[in-house]
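Task 17 of the worksheet. Students: predict the tertiary structure of the chain below and write it out as structure tokens. Keep your answer in the requested format; marks are given for formatting as well as content.
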Amino acid sequence: MGSINQSRITTASGETDEPSNLMMMMMMANGSNIEHTTAYGEADEHATACGETDEHATAYGETDEHATAYGETDDHNRPMTTPGRDEDTLRLISTKTVLSIGTLNTRTLAKPGKMDLLLRELNRYKWDLVGLSETHLPRTGEETISGTSPLLSGRTDGTHRQGVGFILSPTTKKALISFTPVSEGIATIRLKGSVSNLTIIQVYAPDSARSDEECEQFYFQLQSVTDQTPKKDMLIVMGDFNAITGSDQTDRRDEMGPHGHGRLNGRGERLISFYRENDLYITNTAFKHRHRQKVTWRSPDGVTENMIDYVLISKRWKFSIMDTVSLPGADFDSDHSLLMSKLKLRLKRLPKATRIPRFRTELLRDPIKKAPIPPTYRQNSELS
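Model answer:
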């Protein structure tokens, strides 16, 4: 008989009890296995973390239509390193790997069990990094919650409002260069790449209930952070901007695609001013998707829908975004949908320059190699 593994049984209160030796012997005699349970009293189906198939994909009565594009199984733990490469110097962004990054307004992570729900739903998709808005966690730095370690940037007065952060997969953590908490509405992260490093700014902009002065202060701070980004980095600014940029491409074809949504509002004009000043492109609008896969926010009554979450990228790198799509099938207990982008480094090829023949002018200065003037040409020159 093999050795007995000490398992924990999770109670409804969240505490763990070590099973007695007698209980263990009775269970083994009956051929039973001790099953881990979650805070909801259900069987723990986070099998994808162990490499098994995730059976939770249809638990919400809807099959994920992006299973092919984003992966039905959780394979974000798959190493992206090439054989023989030192994992401590992992270069995450390259021309051979696809990085799945997302942004989500969680509404809150302070509610008990909310982080468990978030991780369970994320594991239905292939993801490498997810930016979080409106976490409502008044803490800053790396925090251990439900077995994961999100990087948080929250309020300092203890108020459970606003807040941003990041969740990184184990592979992505190996490429982490730095994390900078700026405020309860802005945080940045920098990842190592093969050609260029990647800087991501996660934001939660003031909503329409807050004053224009607060909105201007937010964009002033965001511009300051953007200016400090290394010029050679691939820059992505994403999150909940609480702004509608509309679908009209007039005078904006270099900044957005033909698949926008809604009518431009005042906060949308402020966002346009920001991405124009920083040569950014709205990736949401570049890809054709159905209506429900474009909108990122829905009112509680389900009547009003808008695109207010965005993934912006520097224009010089916009061809590296393979897709950006809203995933309404995931249940995060939020009125926002997860917005996912697939990123693969693409170097834009410049047209080949016309080769200009090089004349060996040094021969004209060399008396030995200097060619003699033909007699016919000499005579014609003297006659003229």
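Marker's comment: The chain has a mean pLDDT of 78. The chain has one domain: 71-343.
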